[in-house]
Amino acid sequence: MMIMSTGAFSSSSQLLQQPHAGFFTSSGITKTCYYVNKRISRYRCGCIAASVNQGLETSRANKKQQEKGTTSNAFEIETLTTWLLNQERQGNIDSELAIVLSSISLACKQITSLLQRATLSDLTGSQGFINIQGEDQRKLDFIANQVFCNCLRSSGRTGIIASEEEDVPIAIEETYSGNYTVVFDPIDGSSNIDTGLTTGSIFGIYSPGDQEPCLVEYDHEDDDDEEDQSDLKLGKKEQKCVVSACQPGSNLLAAGYCMYSTMVVFVLSIGNGVFSFTLDPMYGEFVLTHKNIQIPKSGKIYSFNEANYELWDDKLKKYIDDIKDTKKKQYAGRYIGCLVGEVHRMLLCGGIYGNPSNTKRKEGNLRLLYECAPMSYLVEQAGGKASDGRRRILDIKPDEIHQRAPLFIGSPEEMDKLEKYLS
């Protein structure tokens, strides 16, 4: 690397005089620099000229903003923390909800670190247990669930937690208990972890309303005839927890997801639009990168797991056959195997995603409470639509914590087209 002497030129004005034929157009600094020191590379000189030009443009932009009465500048960033404080100041959320959302973002940062070091720390593969869903629990499913629970508990503002990895809702002990009910899937698409593909976390926040706080105490006897813990009967207090958690998506106060991929993105809605924050590793903060996201009215991407094609009903088969017809509108098929990744692409590019029921799973595959409802809330806030093929997802009240449902979600025009086939 060449080290430039500070005495090579006395000032930037001396450097930039007498331009020769070269780099830049007439917008700003034209052509190339005058070489006081012949050893200065064209690339280095070009960078100096470009930075000076950019500074002039920034100065002009700031001057225009001052004339309009605005004070922001090109170097200003807005983090998730400052955004939440602004929303609280504007009366869109209260301080307690801001704390809950901040604790969720902290959990997402911790999970990001765990995922990035998963292979190095031997966190890939199976935990060796089957969860309440009857699915093989991955190591990071278990760890991420504990991370979420700990962060929400320490916030002091969460009363009830319902997770994909827990049999029943967890009530926070009275010392730390708050008012909000938080439902979440700690790692969506956990089968992608071992191969380094897209994963995510999904969450939704409810208010308990007039429900009294509940504390979980399992009512079971210590006898040898008890087959397994799935047979435990819920007492009245546990039933209160279930009632508080089992709310329709229309009751959501906030919902969002964090996508772990080539970048870490925290997408959130508190009922006034959809906002996206990207994790800046330099600051360790989520920085606002997309405001008021609006899903395109239509799109050219469809995302269905066509391996199950023969298990679907004939109406859905007809729809899939028609959108694959090259004589009509040209569609492209994409399937990530992670609901978070599918919805994130859809919010930005449009299209439709479907996870329908089939002859093997007539009730559907995805969980209504902590997967379908939060994602449907986000997509509707962005101008999209979500249904189970017959009803709006947000209108469905779950009867149990881990209730499954079919899901079709996407751009409004694409959803209208699908519903005509399914009706």
Automatic annotation (TrEMBL):
One of its GO terms (molecular function) is fructose 1,6-bisphosphate 1-phosphatase activity. Its EC number is 3.1.3.11. GO terms for biological process: fructose 1,6-bisphosphate metabolic process; fructose 6-phosphate metabolic process; fructose metabolic process; gluconeogenesis; sucrose biosynthetic process. It comes from the Eukaryota. Residues 79-291 form the Fructose-1-6-bisphosphatase class I N-terminal domain. Signal peptide: none annotated. It catalyses: beta-D-fructose 1,6-bisphosphate + H2O = beta-D-fructose 6-phosphate + phosphate. It is an enzyme of class 3 (hydrolase). Residues 295-422 form the Fructose-1-6-bisphosphatase class 1 C-terminal domain. HAMAP family: FBPase_class1. Belongs to the FBPase class 1 family. This is fructose-bisphosphatase. It comes from Papaver atlanticum.
